TrEMBL record, chain A:
The enzyme's E.C. designation: 6.2.1.64
Enzyme class: ligase
Pathway: Protein modification; protein neddylation
GO molecular function: ATP binding; NEDD8 activating enzyme activity
Lineage: Eukaryota, Fungi, Dikarya, Ascomycota, Pezizomycotina
Domain E2 binding positions: 348-433
SMART domains for the chain: E2_bind (SM01181)
Described purpose of this protein according to its UniProt entry: Catalytic subunit of the dimeric E1 enzyme, which activates NEDD8.
A Pfam entry, by short name: ThiF
The reaction(s) this protein catalyses: ATP + [NEDD8 protein] + [E1 NEDD8-activating enzyme]-L-cysteine = AMP + diphosphate + [E1 NEDD8-activating enzyme]-S-[NEDD8 protein]-yl-L-cysteine
Top-rank taxon: Eukaryota
PANTHER family found in the cross-reference section: NEDD8-ACTIVATING ENZYME E1 CATALYTIC SUBUNIT (PTHR10953:SF6), UBIQUITIN-ACTIVATING ENZYME E1 (PTHR10953)
Protein name: NEDD8-activating enzyme E1 catalytic subunit
UniProtKB/TrEMBL annotation, chain B:
UniProt pathway annotation: Protein modification; protein neddylation
A single GO cellular-component term on record: cytoplasm
Pfam families (alphabetical): ThiF
SUPFAM superfamilies: Activating enzymes of the ubiquitin-like proteins
Role according to the record: Regulatory subunit of the dimeric UBA3-ULA1 E1 enzyme.
UniProt keyword terms in alphabetical order: Ubl conjugation pathway
Gene Ontology BP terms: protein neddylation
Residue stretches making up the THIF-type NAD/FAD binding fold domain: 23-517
Protein name per its UniProtKB record: NEDD8-activating enzyme E1 regulatory subunit
Family: Belongs to the ubiquitin-activating E1 family. ULA1 subfamily.
Listed GO MF terms: NEDD8 activating enzyme activity
Amino acid sequence: MASGEVHAASEAARWTYLDRVRTRPGPFTNLDSFNGSMVAQAMENMKILVIGAGGLGCEILKNLALSGFKDIHVIDMDTIDISNLNRQFLFRQSDVGKSKAEVAARFVEKRVKGVKITPHNCKIQDFDEDFYMQFQLIVCGLDSIEARRWINAMVVNMVDEDNEDSYKPLIDGGTEGFKGQARVIYPTVTSCIECQLDMHAPRAAVPLCTLASIPRQPEHCIEWAHVIAWDQEKPFPKLDKDDPEHITWLYQKALERAQEFNIPGVTYSLTQGVVKNIIPAIAATNSVIAAACCNEVLKIASNCAPPLGMPDANNYMMYSGNDSIYTYTFQPERKEDCPVCGNLARDLPVDPAWTLRELVESFAARPEAQLKTPSVRAEGKTLYMQSPPSLEAQTRRNLDKTLVELGLEEGQEIAVSDPAFATVIFRFKLKFKPS
Amino acid sequence: MTEIVMSQTPPILHGPSEKERKYDRQLRLWAASGQAALESANILLLNSGAGTVGAESLKNLVLPGIGRFAIYDEAEVSEADLGVNFFLDDSCLGKPRSQSLTELITELNPDVQGTWYPNEDVKTLDSLLSDSPVFTVIMYTHPIRPEQLSRIEAYGQQHKTPLVAIHSAGFYSYFQINLPGAFPIVDTHPDETATTDLRLLTPWPELVAFADELTRDIDGLDNYEHGHLPYVVILLHYLEKWKAAHDGEYPASYDEKIEFRKIVQDAARTNNPEGGEENFDEAAAAVLKTLVPPSLPSGLRKVFEYEHTDPVEQRSGFWLIADAVKQFYDKHKCLPLSGKVPDMKAQSKVYIRLQNIYKDKARKDAAEILQTVQAAPGGERVDPAEVDLFCKNAAFVKLINATGGGGDAKISKAERLRSAAARESVNHETAAPTFSPLSLLPIYLALQATAHHVDSPASADKILAAIAAQVPGAEKDERVVQAAEEVARAGGGELHNIAALTGGMVAQEMIKIITKQYIPIDNTCVFDGIWSRAHVLEL
Ligand SMILES: [Zn+2]
């Protein structure tokens, strides 16, 4: 008994600073939803899911453990690489090669007494709705837009209007260099990640003819080596972007080509950066963005201050540290024609003279679609299916027909799907616009 | 003058070193030069108060490989520390906080040296400051005892050491950078899109001759050549035509530029298989952005107009070069050319020739400036690489803390605060300022009022009374009252998230100051964790 009391006293002492704020209302606290005496217990009972145990994920796990949460799960399928060590502070040189989720979970559990962290060394796509339903909140620290879109579609689809517990707030962070953003998504209430997709437009690809015949920049030479020379010469069975031998091969090829055209600037580091699409990342920015996310988690879980994402309130904070410090906190518009949370088809300007192939290929570059393997259907007919192979073979011949030849009309609706977002049907309304 | 020779032998094909691999993601931001600056820095953290924001700031500097750090912290690790500070655990209870923090933070990066104070040999802040090699930057956290603050401020003045004051309490925080003088930055890393300077309205003879050569028989070019004319050449060609039809004048007004753009658009061939020409599209799209007469950017104007009070500073490399660039500008009515050419549709050979024409001109401009620099007293010591870098970035050079370096007599802190309050309030006329909803000055005032509350937390009333003494009337403003209540709620305690967020911002700024890259804040950043917003104020 005595040791139990000592423990309780030490628990209270430990959370002195947090309790001052989370158990006592302040001038901005909404008193209708705040119950200070229940906060600590309520937070202890909550289950929080963290997606990603990388630069943001390490920070998020630390922040949640020191915000009074006791039951945290983390998903990450990656292993630790030496280039992680400049910011992923839960990992050491001796951890290189081990599972990020497992090492991160063990470290935080060891450092912060009383917190339980369950690691999942796998992909988010390996879990179904039942798994995600057990959490009260989901926090994302990802570097892949595809994974973000997937979990976004999952939480929006999970919403059941008759079940309050089916609304899972999604708190998402992202960084690049000195910049980043933190946002709170309340599925079907605020705009969702898919609504905001065009704010993260993909970089325009260099035209193939530039790579093949008129390179001008070091990047063109590197892309040539990556896209064309590799395919022609196949120096190794399969390109492994993490294998220095493979990168060296590409670097050497790019360098030869650059010398042929007198183009300066091809380096090993640039080669690696272009081929792997490396985004610069530092501890400081991760610290800012992860903490901005977890600050919202604390507010949502405790009601001790108004969180982002309340009705008619801002839910997106953009942060930039290149030139002084600048934040812009705003409310991106929820889109009625969002394929995930809206219910209208989206206008799609197309040239009726396009072949179906041109249409299919155009979805990758459209900022609001970004679909790499789209299958297309129109009312009553299947136009092109990427899989299964038998259906692909049957529909392949449509690819060279024009939209008009396929009988498509102005104003007609088409449905596009992509295995990367299995649950989402992207509905588009054709708007003919000859170019 | 050094001649640049394109090396025909390939550089040695070696992969990156172990260190380059570890720091790869940050070397892409500040390169080897920035990394070297970080690694030779020696910083001090004077940690007091709840102490988390200092530890978090330090973590974000140790990870990227700062050279050395020292922590001065008189506290012993308590239970309350364990709920907020990640770099302390149960085994640290009762030990000196500086020792435990140093042990658990140095563990993050074996390249970094950390030491802790007070210890057996160095027992006071005074002896630490007088016995240590000069610190590159000092960070200190609030609340702090007044005598320690004055000791640190005196040290900063004596050694010209930048000081960073940090205060994190509850949902609020601020930090303030106190630089010892005017702080110029050359390597500001502007956005790529902002750096295009093509001089289309002031072309030099080599560029004119090149454009002329390619367009002499523009209508006789085959479709491939016509469709691969670089847009710079297209614009120069049609500008010449425009001038011939407009008494030698360039399109100047917006309407004229729109008219000119139409001419360029209409000149594209459409009877080809593509039904248009991308290079002409690029040319038309570039009209409004590139047809601008040379002007002096505000950042550089500040540099040119800066009045020196410190003769040592005046003889530094930066100021000698700035002076030479000013002479160049006065003489040529334009800045030295950066030499950068954006990518554009063109044949490889043609593009490379164009690029070299710009590079040659940039080299000539830089050589002229180097000559001026070397003719000035002390100029022979200036590194030509520094001149090159300045010329490449001339349009984006920035001067921070321009007023702090001299000029006006030192105004008192309280006076500066009162004038900031006047600036930030929407109502200047009445005695009681009403702060604009966007200003976070109320938060700064409330935190500042508890700057020295080391032992006991302050009530909202006490905070408001302290604010009233500094900025009379402010205590009546509703936003100030709310900020005071919110600060009182925290009772001097930190929320881990706000400490971590603030530590991230502080580390970014420390990195900018130490590497002299990117642009630091000038000079105070306030964060509001209730509405998730930052505000930079000059105080
Ligand atoms: Zn949506």
